[in-house]
Write a structure and sequence with these properties.
It is a single chain. This protein is an alpha+beta fold. It folds into two domains: about 180 residues, no CATH class; about 50 residues, no CATH class. Helices cover about 30% and strands about 20% of the residues. The chain has six helices and eleven strands. It has a six-stranded mixed sheet with strand order 3-4-8-9-10-11. Strands 5-7-6 form a three-stranded antiparallel sheet, with no helix packed on it. Strands 1-2 form a two-stranded antiparallel ribbon. The longest helix is centred in the C-terminal third of the chain and has 22 residues. The protein starts with 17 loop residues before the first strand and ends with a helix.
Length: about 240
């Protein structure tokens, strides 16, 4: 689905039709890919609510903490997820709670910001950012037929969120070398096939918080996009 120049991903509904994983059109509601364990998704010890996202072709579950204030602001003005990296970089140039003169910004960013009245106010004093990220991505979980491959995928993912791997092999323990690798890199492993509920085999290391960045905003926007889609799917 193409993203308009404004950088906004379209809101679900509004007469639009989207194709589900089978290629069929859905009646105004985005049909997102749902993993086999979707029923248990919000019971996983990775945080909640849990949404499914895809980054550069890599599918994962994500625990997304919604910002109620920003959610209400966007609902009020009819704005969905803002997924344009270029626009987010422009917004990143503006501090919270102050004007930035347009002459202090590169022309390309000025033009970009002028296409985003949903996120900035422009006056003769410059630009004032009204945008805030829609929430915070807290953790991600990778699932697949190979625990080894899933652990390596998790290791390659940014440690600014907690990283988990889901395994379905309650009858086959995770090989010790893989478990050691996960512990070394701070990747958690959760067995979701236990009768008494998911069991943490390896705890995940805390996320590396550090200084917020545009990439954090972008991850939050991707999660928010699917949060809106899956929420619309549930109430349709």
């Amino acid at each position: 689905m193409a993203v308009p120049r404004s950088g906004l991903a379209p809101l679900p509904g509004a007469g639009q039709h989207f194709r589900d994983s089978t290629g069929r059109k859905g009646g105004g509601v985005v049909q997102t890919a749902v993993p086999d364990h979707a029923v248990e998704a919000n019971q996983l010890p990775i945080g909640s609510p849990v949404v499914s996202i895809s980054i550069e072709g890599s599918k994962m579950l994500a625990a997304f903490e919604l910002d109620p204030k920003e959610y209400k602001r966007r609902q009020r003005i009819g704005v969905g997820a803002i997924t344009s990296k270029a626009l987010l970089h422009g917004l990143w140039s503006l501090p919270t709670g102050g004007f930035v003169p347009s002459e202090a910004l590169p022309d390309v960013k000025v033009q970009r910001l002028r296409t985003a009245p949903h996120s900035v106010i422009e006056t003769d004093r410059g630009f004032w950012r009204t945008y805030d990220p829609p929430g915070t991505l807290r953790s991600v979980a990778f699932d697949g037929s190979s625990v080894d491959r899933s652990v390596h995928r998790a290791i390659r993912f940014t440690p600014i969120v907690q990283r988990f791997v889901l395994t379905h092999g309650s009858n086959e323990p995770v090989p010790w070398p893989i478990e050691c690798l996960a512990r070394e890199w701070g990747v958690g492993i959760i067995d979701v096939e236990q009768k008494d509920g998911p069991r943490v085999i390896v705890p995940a290391s805390p996320a590396e918080i550090g200084v917020p960045s545009v990439y954090r905003w972008w991850l939050a926007e991707l999660a928010y996009k699917n949060y809106l889609y899956e929420r619309a799917q549930l109430v349709s």
